[in-house]
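User: Sequence recovery, please. Input:
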């Protein structure tokens, strides 16, 4: 037990450090979009479709047996759809806010949008931090695969948030969402939720990962690299199949 706590704590610390220093990684910067960011997005998507969604199918069985929410009893995937929808609405609000700021010559008119967006990612990261210690990772190897996929996913998220908020995000946002990973892990040390609620968390994160990756890769103005994204998908998919 002590070993698993120590390993998961190190994993939480690694993910938090990635968020703090992602903006300092020079080879990820520039335009067109870095091939490494596209590859990172591919890895995260592969992990969701090859590992998280199949595992979610297993959670669905638990959900059917124990859920008192009749209207959701056979539709845990609706929670994943909800996660995707929430992050889409936040992304849309952030884009509208940024466009309005440009029209007002840089005046920051919508600080509430910024804090709502950052807080949502803080909650999202805290849930992932909690899962580091309580989800069935399949041992050290499973935890390693999870950390690699989520670490690359966090880097992609970090660049998206910086693009929206620039100095505001660098000044305080990145610290809040980084510390939230540690906070989620600490909550996991002292509390354990039911399997039903854990299934809901899993589904919500799956939807969020899908949206947060695709929103960074699909827009034409990103000039993303399809082949780098494709290589990331194929490489990590084969790795998960072999393991």
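Assistant: Recovered sequence (243 residues):
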């Amino acid at each position: 037990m002590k070993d698993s706590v120590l390993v998961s704590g190190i994993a939480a610390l690694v993910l938090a450090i990635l968020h703090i220093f992602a903006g300092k990684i020079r080879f990820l910067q520039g335009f067109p979009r870095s091939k490494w960011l596209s590859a990172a997005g591919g890895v995260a998507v592969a992990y969701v479709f090859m590992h998280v969604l199949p595992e979610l199918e297993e959670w669905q069985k638990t959900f059917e047996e124990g859920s008192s929410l009749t209207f959701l009893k056979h539709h845990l995937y609706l929670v994943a759809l909800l996660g995707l929808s929430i992050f889409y609405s936040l992304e849309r609000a952030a884009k509208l806010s940024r466009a309005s700021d440009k029209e007002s010559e840089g005046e920051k008119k919508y600080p509430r949008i910024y804090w709502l967006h950052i807080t949502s990612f803080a909650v999202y990261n805290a849930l992932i931090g909690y899962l580091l210690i309580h989800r069935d990772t399949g041992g050290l190897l499973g935890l390693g695969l999870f950390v690699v996929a989520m670490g690359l996913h966090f880097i992609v998220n970090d660049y998206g948030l910086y693009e929206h908020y620039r100095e505001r995000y660098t000044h305080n946002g990145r610290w809040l969402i980084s510390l939230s990973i540690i906070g989620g892990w600490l909550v996991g040390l002292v509390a354990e939720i039911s399997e039903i609620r854990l299934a809901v968390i899993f589904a919500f994160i799956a939807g969020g990962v899908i949206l947060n990756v695709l929103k960074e890769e699909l827009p034409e103005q990103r000039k993303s690299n399809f082949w780098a994204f494709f290589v990331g998908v194929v490489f990590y998919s084969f790795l998960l199949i072999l393991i």
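DSSP finds eight helices and no strands in the chain.
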